Amino acid sequence: MANGTPPAPGLTFPPETFAKLTPRPFLQAHLQHKDSIRPNGRRPEEVRKPTVNTGSLSYSNGSAVVRVGDTAVVCGVRAEILLASDIPHPPNGDADAEHLLEDLGLLVPNVELSTGCSPTHLPGNPPGILAQALSYRILSLLHVSDLVNLQDLQIEYTVPQTDDDLPDAGPKTVVKAYWTLYIDILCIAMDGNPFDAAWTAVIAALRDTSLPRAWWDPDREIILCSPLEAEASRLRLRNLPMASTFAVYSTSSPLKQRAHAESWVLADPDGFEEDVCHESVTVVLSHHMDGKKSGILRVEKHGGGIVDNVALLRCVQATRNRAGEWCAVLGIT
Amino acid sequence: QADRRRLNAPPGGTAPPAFATPKTVKLERPKRTRKPDEHRKIYLRTGIVPSASGSAYYEIPPQSDQKQSGLSLPQTSSLKITCTVHGPRPLPRNAAFSPNLLLTTHVKFAPFATRHRRGYVRDASERDLAVHLETALRGVIIGERWPKSGVEVVITVLEGEEDGWWGDAGGGGGGGGWGLMGVLAGCITVASAALVDAGIDCVDLVSGGVAVVVGDGGGSGGKPKGGEGALVLDPSPAEHAEMRAACVVAYLHSRDEITELWMRGDAGAESERLIDEAVKAASLARTVLVEAVKEAVE
After folding, report:
1. Which of A292, B96, B125, B229 has the fewest CB atoms within 10 Å, counting from its CB?
2. What is the DSSP string of A73-122?
3. B261-286: average pLDDT
4. SS3 assignment, position A215
5. Quick one: pLDDT at residue B228?
6. CATH number of the domain that residue A175 is part of
7. Alpha carbons A260 and B250: distance in angstroms, whole number
């Protein structure tokens, strides 16, 4: 276009069209600007503040709705009873309590993305790679963080003393059944970073969960529960880990020299950035409720080799800095 | 197939808890406090899913305060439905030529939507609802403007209405599926709002309404005369001990047309009055729909 003449009609497009036609140069132009800013207006280290709403579902033992920007996730926790006599391979009495929760499979999280949350996730298909990976990551994080106390999930029965027992022997308690928690996470709207939103929803829903008082009825040989709210008890969560995901955008390519490449670490990527970035890092920090020292629980990194130790430590530090805000959002003192 | 790709229940299987109410606590069936022709308050909002072409959220909040009863089980039902519309999108290349817009509907209940936990795989009742919804919407969409295109209407029911009162024998679950009719009425209204949000051409705003013939007098003010049952619109199934027939209509107000009619049970001589009641319910729902759509435009 020559200088001095007004641009011919139809040759300039609004920013959204550029974003659709050439996403990578669009993002790169924003980041290479002198005050690096992302297309959604945030700085590279800025995250979206989540809003959490608990207790809105009536048929669940615990529920939470989390909105992080345009990503919205609903999590419902349902408790059902697994009788000890139904377990096909019962654990021996001295089994490791730590692994018992995992072996019995009492926590069943599932992430469902095929709800029409975005044009790429339409219903009618079985869960794809992303949904299965999210479900498994949440399951392994629940077990590794030692979040749920197995004692909360056990339904015990004190066997009444008969004449055969020794008079000195104390009452014997046996576990008759376990509570199984079905943690169902539905993504209502998807705009990037489903893992953080899903994890925050799981924590909020588990904190909101209340289990009814249950006892073993020896005459009818079933477990009965009390419907009274006053007799229900909450879960005692030992650890409330905080997860934070970062995406890495880099201009490196096999055709260029490694030293010439520029890269940026973007905290809390949205849908547009996730499509364009290949590498991502997730940092999970533990937050113990029983006085133990909190530290790094898990660091996951995949998709490339741009992030080195220095950048990883920066990500961990950025996550630490946000811990106070995250606790405030969830209502943790 | 779904079992391999999802995390499953622990081996051994689980069962929902069985409740035993102590004798000191008296269980009372919730009573209908509104008039027989009064609709519950509806909350409707569009534009909740920005990445979809159109979306809407419909909610009927629970009528009574949960804390009052002291029970941890919900006493009255509520309804929470989300709808997203994707389209008009081009059909895949190998699809046959279609001169009209191809409408596909999906209805899915969330696992935590009802008293008994539902699975992730769609069952027959959900497919049935999807077919009824498609009939309702097909009559209102102007299809000729979008050849070789398809539109997907996806409904997720986050909380569904019950079939009956949980304190009844049989737990209210074996009531014949009356709760589904209320859910369908909600689905029609929310899908209509989402279609408007997506900018798909329609001849009119379609709204859904449900009415029942009850056998117990229908709450305050309704008295059964002789053998006739009372007619009640927008029922909460837990409030009625016996429901004889129910009807759901999808109604176009400005054209005075019905695009979908689903009747269940034996209404006998009351059938025409039942349909009229359901149409009245649909008109009441339409006022909320119009307000929500106008608000979105501003």
Report:
1. B96
2. EEEEEEEEEEEGGG-SSPPPTT--HHHHHHHHT-EEEEEE-TTTSSTT--
3. 92
4. strand
5. 54
6. 3.30.230.70
7. 63
Residue A254 lies in a domain: yes
Name the phi and psi angles at B58, rounded to 5: -120, 135
pLDDT reading at A284 higher than 70: yes
Residue in chain A lying closest to B66 (CA)? A58
Q: What's the rounded Cα separation, in Å, for the pair B90 and B150?
A: 6
- Domain assignment present for residue A73? The answer is yes
Domain span holding position A308: 39-330
Residue A310: partners with Cβ closer than 8 Å, 6 or more residues away = none
Q: What is the ipTM of this complex?
A: 0.89
Q: Which residues of B touch A122 (CB under 8 A)?
A: 86, 106, 152, 154
Cβ neighbours of B10 in A, within 8 Å = 82, 87, 104-106, 108, 180
Q: Does A182 touch chain B (CB under 8 A)?
A: yes
Element (H, E) at B87: strand B79-90
Minimum-distance CB partner of A229 among B14, B17, B71: B71
Which residues from A are below 8 Å from B111, CB to CB?
76, 78, 110, 182, 184
Specify if A8 maps to a domain. no
> How many independent structural domains does chain A possess?
1
Give all domains of chain B, ordered by start, each with its CATH number: 43-62+75-296 (3.30.230.70)
User: pLDDT, tens digit, for every residue of B78-95?
Assistant: 899 999 999 899 998 999
pLDDT digits (tens, 9 = 90+) for A73-84: 999 999 999 999
Q: pTM for this one?
A: 0.91
Query: From CA B29, how far away is CA B72, in angstroms rounded?
Result: 15
Reply yes or no: is the peptide bond before residue B88 cis, omega within 30 of 0. Answer: yes
CA distance A135 to A160: 43
- Report, as an integer, the average pLDDT of A45-50: 92
Lowest-confidence range among A261-265, A321-325, B170-174? B170-174
What's residue A186's pLDDT? Answer: 96
Residues from chain A that touch B71, judged by Cβ atoms under 8 A, are 227-229
pLDDT bin (cut points 50, 70, 90) of residue B225 is very low
